[in-house]
Each structure stands twice: as C-alpha cells, then as structure tokens.
Amino acid sequence: MRTVLLASLRTHTRRYGAALLAVLVGVVLVLVTASLSSAVRDGLTSGLAEPYDGADAVLGHPSPDDAARLLAAAPEQGADAWLLGWTLQQLSHDGRVVSTDSDIGPVADEPAGRWQELTSGRFPDRPGEAVLDNNAAKAAHLAVGDRLRIGTGSSALDVTVVGLVDSPSTYVVASVYVLWTDLARWQDHLYVSSLAWAGPEPGYDGARDAIRAVVPGAEPDTVDAFVQEVQKDVNRGVDVIAIVALLFAAVALLVAVLVINNTFTILFAQRSRDFALLRCVGATRRQVVRSVRLESLALGLLAAVLGTAGGLAAGQGLVALIHGQWPEARLGDAEVGTVWLVVAATLAVGVPVVAAWLPTRRVVRVSPLAALRPDDSTQVGTATGRTRVAAGVLLLLAGTAAFAVALAAAVPPALVAGGVATFVGVLLLGPVLVPALVRGLARLGRRLMGPAGRLAAGNAVRNPRRTAATTASLLIGVTLTTAVLTGLASSRSALADEMDDQHPVDIAITSARALPADTVDRARAVDGVAAALPVTGTTAEVAALGDVAVLGVPPAGADSVLHGKVRTPGPRAIVLPWDLIGDGLEVGDRVAVTVGERTVRLRVRAGDGWGEAALVAPGTLARLDPSPRLHAVWVRADEDADPEDLAGSMEAIGSPLGAGIENGLADRAYVDLQLDVLSGGVVGLLGISVVIALVGIANTLGLSVLERGREHALLRALGLTRRQVRRMLAAEAVLLATVATALGTVLGVVFAWLGVRSLVEPVVTGASLVLPWTQLGAVVVLAALAGLAASVLPARRAARTAPAAGLALE
Amino acid sequence: MTSPLAASTRGLTKSYGRGDTLVPALRGIDLDLPAGRFTAIMGPSGSGKSTLMHCLAGLDQPTSGSVTVAGQALEDLDDDALTHFRRDHVGFVFQAFNLLPMLTAEQNIWLPAELAGRSTTGLRDRFDQVVTSLGIADRLTHRPAELSGGQQQRVAIARALLGEPAIVFADEPTGNLDSAASAEVLSLLRQSVRELGQTVVMVTHETEAAQYADDVVVLADGRIVERREVAA
Ligand SMILES: Nc1ncnc2c1ncn2[C@@H]1O[C@H](COP(=O)(O)OP(=O)(O)O)[C@@H](O)[C@H]1O
Ligand SMILES: [Mg+2]
Questions:
Q1: Three-state secondary-structure class, residue A59
Q2: Distance from C-alpha of A425 to C-alpha of A468, rounded to nearest angstrom
Q3: Where among A200, A220, A240 does a domain terminate?
Q4: Which of A404, A485, A700, B227 is packed most tightly, with the most Cβ within 10 A?
Q5: What is the CATH number of the domain that holds A550?
Q6: Do A172 and A262 belong together in one domain?
Q7: Are residues A682 and A789 in the same domain?
C-alpha cells in the first residue's frame, strides 16, 4: 500500500491545495493572536514596578480627594508621596487643537517620586511648566519650548514644554505631565490609579499607619503586592481579548473543517472506482482506510509545518509593523510560548484528520462491486436522508423552544443554546433547504441567465449534500457577520439616543462675560458648521459660585442646532452643570441668583452637555435681566466635520474673548469611532472565515469541473460556446453564494432580533432592532461578487475542455 | 448517382503528440459524403474512425487538409464560429454519455435548440414527429438514469434530429447495447434517412451494424482502404 499512498499523494496533492489553504489560515490566525497578545502583555506589564521604586506602600484607586489630602500631608510627615493617574483634557497648541482628549498626568514635586525618564530638557520646577511624553510629542509634532493650552474655558491652563520624558511602564503613561498644583484644578475629573508613599523610615508598617492617619480605613499594599495585583489585572484583560480573538480563530477553523470535509468527500467520490479496484485486487478495508487516513495526516503535517512557520512570521511581522508605524501603541516584544506552538501544530494536524474521518468511513462502506457502478445515491428519501431531516426538524423545534425561554426570561444561555440548535438544524436540513432555495432563485433569475444559467441551476442542485456542505461554510460566516452588524446597528441607535441626551449641543462657546454680537456670524462662517445659534443670558451671582453665565432656554430656533433637547427648567428652577455642583451645593437646594439689584431664589437641578453655564426658563431670565445679552453660541456641525479641526476654529474665536468651548462632537465621534472599530474588527475577523468559505466554493467548483469533464465536452459538442461554459460556472457559483448569503442574512437578522429583544431591551429602554440595510446589502452583493471571483479559475479550466477530448471512452 | 455533398475532406491528416511520441491517426483522407444517405465508417480499433469523425464534425482541428460541411470550410472558423456552426448544422449520437444526467429526456432533446437560443414554438411539430417516430413519447419526463441504454440512445437520436441538421454523426451508437436494442437503434437511424431524408454518418467496427447503411467506407491505419455500396 505504500506505493499506492505515495502515488496518490503525488497525483492528488494539487487538489488538496484549497484544503491546505483553509487550515493554514486558521492556524496562522491562532499564532498571530498568540504573538499579538504576548506583545500587548509584555508592553503593558514591563516596567510595571518602576514608578513605585523607593515607595514603602501603595494605595490603589484612592478617591481624588483622599489623594489630594495625602499629597498635602506628606511634607508635614517628612514623607514623599506621588500620584499616578490622569485626566482627559483638550490639548491645543497655537490655537490648533492637538487632541480633544489628551491624557494629562502629574509629575512629582520631589525627585524621589519622579519615575519618568528625562530624555531632554528638564523637569518642571514651577507651575505653568510641563514635560511631554516622547511618543506623544512625536505624534503631535511638539517640542521643548512650545506653549500649550490644556483644557478650555475658565479652567484652561497655559503651560510651556520644558522637557521630554519616556515612561518605563505603559500602565501609567500620560501624554503631558504637570505639577500637582496645576493638575489639581481638574481634581473632579481625575482618575487616580494609585498613590505611592515613601516615609522617612523605610518599611511598610510605618507608611501604612501614616496613610491611615490621613485616610482612616485605607488599605495600602506593599509595592510587590500591588504590582502583582496589577499584573494579574492586566493578564486577565489580555486573556479576555485573546479568548475573543481565539473564538474567531475557532470559527475560521470550523469553517476549514467543513471545507476540508467537503474536499475529501468529493475527492473520495471521484476516486471510488480506484478504491473499489484496490479492493478487487485484494486490498483489505483496513488497508484502504489506512492509506486514505495517512493522506489526510500527510496534509495535516504539511499544514503544521507551513502554518507554524507562517503564523510565527506573520505574528512577528505584524508586531514589527506596529512598532514601526505606531510607536504610541507601545507594544512589547512578542514571544510565542511552546504551548501555543503545540496547540497550533495539533490543530493543523487535527483539522484535516478530523475532517477526513467521516468521508473515509463512507469509502469503507462502499463494496468493491458497487463502487464500479456509477454512483448517484445522494437523494433525500434514503434512510440517512430521513434521519437527517428528522434530526434537523427536531433541532429547529428545540432551538425555537429555547428562544421562547430566552425571550420570556432573558436567560443568555438559553439564547446561545437556541442559536446553536437552530443553526445546526438548518445545516442538517441543508440538503433539502438549499437546493430548494437555489431552484427558487434560479426561477427568479431565469430571464436574466439564459441557457447557461439554467444549466448552472441544474448543476448547483444535482448533488444536494455537496451543495449543502459547500454553502454551509459560507453560511456560518455570513450569519455571524449579519448578526453582529445588526446587533451593533441596534446598539448604535440606542446609544445615539443616549448621546443626544448627553450631548445635545455639538459645540458650545460659552462665556460668563457677554460676547460681541458678531461672534455668531464668525462661528457660522467656519468650515464644517451647519448652523450657529445665538443664546442670550446674563451674568449672575449664583450663591457661593460667583459669576456664572445664566442662559434662557430653549432659545428660539433650538431645533435647528440641537440633537434631542437640553433640559428646560421650570420657572422656579435653575439647571447647573455637574461640575459646578459639589462644593457645599446639592441638587434640590434653593439658591439665590442675583443680577445687580434683582435676586431670585431657584431650586437647583443638574445636567450637562452645553458648557459652563446655568440654564433657566426665559421668563426667569427676564425677571433677572430685562435686556439679556449674547452669552453663548451653540453650533451644529456638518455630518462629516472633523471634531478637532472644528474645536480649533472655535477655540480661535472663543479664546480671545475668554469663552470656554464645550465639545460634544468629539465625544460623539469617540463613541462612533469605538463602534466603528468594534464592527470593523469583528467583521474583519469574520471576513477571514468568509474568505475560507469562498476558497471552499472555488474548490468544490474546481473539483466538480474535473468530475464533469465529459459533460462539458458533450455540451461543447452540442453547441455551448466557451463563454457560455464560463458563464455557466460563474452562475453556479453566484447562485450558491447568494443563497448561502441570503439564508445567512435571514438567520443573522433573526438571531440579532432575538438578542436585542432578550438581552438589550431589558437593559436599555427603547432599544429596538435596527437593520443596517446598506451594510446587509453590501454583504449580499460582496458575497455574490466573491462567488463570481471564486468561479474564475474553475471556469477557465472548464472552458479549455476540447469538445472531442471528453468523449472518448476511458 | 449524383446527389449533392453533405460533407467532404481533401488531404486530411491528423497527428497526436509530437517528436518521438507522434501518432499519425489520419494519413491523408479524401472523402465525399453524399447528402441523404447513411454512410458507415468501418475499420479495426485504432484505425482512426473516431478521429475522422471528430474532424468532420468540427470537434477537433485537423493537422492539415480541408474539411467542408454543408458548403462551409471548417478551417476558416474560430472556436466560437465553429461552436455556432455545430449547433446549427451538425447532430451527434455518441457511444456512451450522450445525455446530461441532471436533465430530463425532453430537456436533453431541447438542449441544442436552447443553447442556440432558438424559439421552441417553431420546432414543436418537428419535436412531436421525431419523438413519436422514435417511440419515446412516454419517456420524456424521465431522467437518463431511469432509462434503458436503448432508450437513452433513442433520446440522443431525437436530440440530433430535432434541429434538422445537415448531417448527423454517430460514433459507435450501439457499442454499449445488447443486440435487440442495437437493431432497434440502427433501424431508427436508417428510418430517419429514408423517411426524413437525413444524412447520417456512423462509425462502427461491427459488420452487422454496417448492414443497415447505404455506403461503407473502410479505414485501416489512418487511410481509406475500401469504399463500397451496400446491396439493398
Ligand atoms: N487524444 C489522443 N492523443 C493521442 N493519440 C490519440 C488520441 N486519440 C486517438 N489517438 C490515437 O489515434 C489513433 C486513432 O484513434 P481513433 O480515431 O480513436 O481510432 P478508432 O476510433 O478507429 O478506434 C489511435 O492510434 C489512437 O491511439
Ligand atoms: Mg473510436
């Protein structure tokens, strides 16, 4: 049998090309995931302990107020304390907005706490000075000596860059570091990751007691314990991401199993005469099976070698590329452990062997004589067909029941179980369902397709099981893609409503002093501004807060600039931004609001999204100030306006007037970007499975072309032109791809609907299914085009068939 | 007897392979095939019968020489033109694998007309006539797998005759049939010549089959070695 095995490997190797490709993609994906997660882990955890060098204790996540008190108390106790954390603020340079959410962190007053590594210039030694992170400086083209403005409005801070630094640890890195005295103005917006404490006497106990003296009940850790805890957190986070990525690899490998299974099934069917002949001349069943399984093993070993080499190279290449192109991503080194290599190699070997298992068993069942007769036995109605249909129907019913449970009780596991059961049910019913759909679609497109198309429709359904298996691989990818796209579109629209509430104004220019009347026109003239609305108000003294702009809302024509609505206070209320509430003032308090001689007592409400101003009803404003003046301009941006450019232009108008800029557009854009990245990533990863599935379609078609050589010759003899042959195969591929995509789209939308109904709706009120028609349409069109592309090579080969060639009897 | 020619060849040669493996399958054939007659091409296996038929039918390109069918010189046609020519002027019956397995008998018969984009309404009467005379009217909805070998060949003949081609080629049409079915198929071919005036060229190595023909051409080693009329 050795000779047979080697000879058939030689003969059939090329036909395994697609199978090899399918498993390679999956294995490479696994190793790239391993490389990237290792690099991310390394980047996040290396140098983790360095910022705490010399500290005796670390307090994790103190409140900003506690942190401030500890920083203030340290010098009195002869201790050093430094804080690790940041606040996100707009950063501008020369009136140009560098970033709408730059991370601003502290640099310690005393050298002991300065963990940043100075690379040029010096550390700040007075307020109004800052050091920049090297990567951030490079990305924004900033240098020592530049003047920067951090934040906007009354809390804006102007600083001079005096030095550039590197961070030993990505965990606590910020773009800009300023002294605590400067940073403290954003105390309410500060995220404090930790506070390090170094007492006059080394030792944990003393440091802990000193901290507890200021913050009773605080639970500081030793540096080692704290670092270990962070490390664990980081690892957990990376693990979660890696597991998600591996899920996609699993989907890709599952699709590969289907593609390879189909390849073997077809190849073995084509070779059944060879097998029967072998049996006739005395090979035992065992011998035939072993020889065939060894073929799949050989394929697997080849995949293991190529896959691990390719996967490692791709992983390292990708990490190197990211290092070079995006240094600010701060990836570490990629080191793929032996475990990963073993897993990848095992998958590479295992997938083909598993995929070949069933087709091989079918080979054995064929009797020596039966295999010599023409085989046309895959009709529904055979015993296996009936079992299959019954199982499929049962699974569909079970899935529906699980869905009903999920809907009634919002149980996620029931939803997943229902999804899996229904999907497997549909796959099992494939040999009945898919050909029926192909026939239906072919009937619809009858006029369009001509005789070649009609032949294609016949070809597409002649072997229902093969048709079903071919479409199944594509079905998986498309179903998941559409479910995700629809789910995200629904979440996006739910979020959009929320964003409308949180950021009713795209950009607000607000000032406590009255603005010149031409501000509105100047804002309106800016590129990317769709509308600018004057909002009148007055400067009022609000209790202890001092002078505050008080605006009358809603201003006339508010609908033309607002998303949703701003809060409209009643006649006896005043809405204050959350920032202003806090120090001795609470929601529900009654405060005195005074303009000149007039004083009104109003109840405090809170809200956000229009900048640093209080809102009152127009009637209330009239009582405070009979001739209100311009205090704010609310701007609605064009759909495609760049938030940072726009903020820069507004800053240029507002800054000289002492006005603050509220940039809701940037927050909106940020949320949009996150959703775009999420859907892009998911679709990209699922796209890999779709590509594998299309390779499978091309493969099935290619193998079918070999099988139908004589048919094509006959058709050519009877008058089918080369072009018609090509068109016939293209139509077959497009029919298969379109049916798989259409079915997948329906399933995906149904799954998404169930997901939204049972998971999102109970949490987000008003969430409902939103169909991203363009995206769904694009998926169908792309799949059809890809089907077309998949047919190119097989069609070329088929068209080459000489009309006489196939007709001679073998 | 001077009937018009359905097809003719002059100096036709065909070789396969090249260099050491060159196989001359036809070594200079001059042949006239009169219209309205049933010609049998005979000869031992490997003598070049199928090759001659393929060249005559425009299924294969000759190495040299000319082939004229229905007044058209085939060497002037490119692949597409040849395809169109075949579907308009030539009918085929092969030894095996004559029918597309996924189409019914009726669909198989209509196939060439459909490929040519010809309207089926005009051919309805002809279809009924052919199908009735071949005795397969009650088998039209069956697929090839559900038909006997003889029935399959009759469907193939019906398909060849439907378009009223200038010439019908049959390559060993009885090669896979038992003697009763063979006799039937041969009678039907002959009947189509007698009753419909069809020109039929049949390749066979069976002497009995040749008895149904009007003329016999005998090939050996790529040359015509004999040409005779069959006594009625
Ligand atoms: N495609 C081919 N390639 C190479 N040689 C061929 C091919 N087809 C036929 N031959 C050779 O040409 C000669 C004639 O073949 P053929 O016309 O099939 O003979 P017949 O039909 O009389 O049995 C034979 O020697 C055969 O081996
Ligand atoms: Mg022959």
A1: strand
A2: 12
A3: A220
A4: A700
A5: 2.40.40.20
A6: no
A7: yes
Q: Give A339-372 pLDDT, tens digit per residue.
A: 889 989 998 999 888 888 888 877 777 666 554 4
Among candidate residues B114, B214, B117, the one with its CA nearest the CA of residue B159: B114
Do residues A491 and A778 make contact, with C-beta atoms less than 8 angstroms apart? no
pLDDT at A186 over 80: yes
Q: Is residue B47 part of a domain?
A: yes
Pair A226, A109 in one domain: no
Domain of B130?
Answer: 36-53+77-229
Confidence of residue B38 (pLDDT cuts 50, 70, 90): very high
Contact A149, A98 (CB under 8 A): no
Last residue of a domain, one of A352, A375, A398: A375
The rounded mean pLDDT for chain A is 84
Instruction: Nearest chain A residue to B50 by CA: give it.
Output: A808
DSSP designation for A380: B
Q: What is d(CA A605, CA A616) in angstroms, rounded to the nearest whole number?
A: 10
What would the two tokens of residue B60 be? 């294969």
Provide the whole-model pTM: 0.74
**Residues A479 and A584 reside in one and the same domain:** no
Q: Is residue A540 part of a domain?
A: yes
Q: State how far the alpha carbon of A338 is from the alpha carbons of A29, A234, A342, A708, in Å.
A: 16, 22, 6, 46
3-state secondary structure of B227: strand
**Distance of alpha carbon B158 from alpha carbon B188, whole angstroms:** 10
Q: Which residue among A461, A710, A804 sits closest to B59, beta carbon to beta carbon?
A: A804
Whole-number Å distance between alpha carbons of A439 and A735: 9
The whole-number pLDDT of residue A375 equals: 44
What share of chain A has pLDDT > 70, as a percent?
A: 94
What is the rounded CA–CA span in Å between residue A493 and residue A769? 9
Residue B127 lies in a domain: yes
Taking CA atoms, A608 is separated from A285, A515, A570, A616, A756, in Å, by 77, 21, 17, 14, 29
> Exposed, middle or buried, A368 (CB in 10 Å: 0-12/13-18/19+)?
middle
Residue A415's alpha-carbon distances to A400, A419, A421, A425, A759, in angstroms, are 10, 6, 10, 15, 9
B96/A809 CB distance under 8 A: yes
Q: pLDDT higher for A677 or A70?
A: A70
A756 versus A153: the higher-pLDDT residue is A756
Which CATH number belongs to the domain containing residue B95 in this structure? 3.40.50.300
Best mutation target among B49, B63, B102, B118 (most A Cβ atoms within 10 Å) is B102
pLDDT of A807: 61
Ligand 1 binding pocket includes B45 (Cβ within 6 Å): yes
3-state secondary structure A117-176: EEEEECCCCCCCEEEEEHHHHHHHCCCCCCEEEECCHHHCEEEEEEEEEECCCHHHCCCE
**pLDDT for the residue numbered A805:** 65
Whole-angstrom distance, CA of residue B92 vs CA of residue B96: 11
**What's the token pair of residue A206?**
């003393």
Q: What's the structural domain count of chain A?
A: 4
Same domain, A154 and A175: yes
Could you list which residues have their CB under 5 Å from ion ligand 2?
B 50
How far, in Å, is the centroid of ligand 1 from the Cα of B72?
26
Q: Is residue A435 part of a domain?
A: no
Q: Which of the pair, A45 or B182, is modelled with greater confidence?
A: B182
How many domains are contained in chain B?
A: 1
The finding on whether B48 has its CB within 6 A of some atom of ligand 1 is yes
The answer to whether residue B183 is domain-embedded is: yes
Q: Where are the alpha helices (DSSP H) in B96-205?
A: 105-115, 124-133, 149-162, 179-196
pLDDT of residue A582: 66
For A704, the domain range is: 451-505+665-810
CA A516 to chain centre: 45
Distance CA A331, CA A318 (A): 11
